[in-house]
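Bench notes, afternoon.
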Amino acid sequence: MNSFHVGFKDIVSAGGFTLGVLIVLSVYSLGLVWQKLVVYRRVIGPLPGLVDRLRRIVESGKLAEAVALCKAAKGPAADVVMAALRGPSGKEERRAATERALEREVAVLERGLPVLGTIGSTAPFIGLFGTVLGVMRAFRDLAGAANAGPGVVAVGISEALIATAAGLFVAIPAIVAYNYFTSRANRFSDELRWITDEILDRLAEPAESR
């Protein structure tokens, strides 16, 4: 148990400042992922059930029921639909108001995602930079060693490669999270845009045809 503890300290020491940077990025990205999960659950969680109910109501032409449903449901998705139902008079004006409401909610969902994408794309290069520094240090130690041998180089390079592994360890979850959240935000936008377009088309119909 003690040897593992010493080995871990050696790894951290060998990683140098680049490993410290990667640890900070890892903690920050995990915190950001947790925050986005909470936000997405609040914003998108009720969406499937709400959209299904709104689809049935709108197809039946009962827009008053759609208004009542959105008032009862509340939340960002309901606010976007209400912008279509209770927006300014005129189809284009309502569409513009709906787009503004939708853009506000999508902006909330996408907040922080560029940071995740940046961490995912740069962490491997930070790790590679640490590895290059570690290899240079290993060869410098080899040159100054009295009894130089393959073992000296192997130990130095193996420690240097820790930085590359750490970079990948940070990057892969960040990229996966970025793609997941981006996909969810796009689906949220597409589903709400579909249902609001249906509502706007219904509202544009003559009253006797509803």
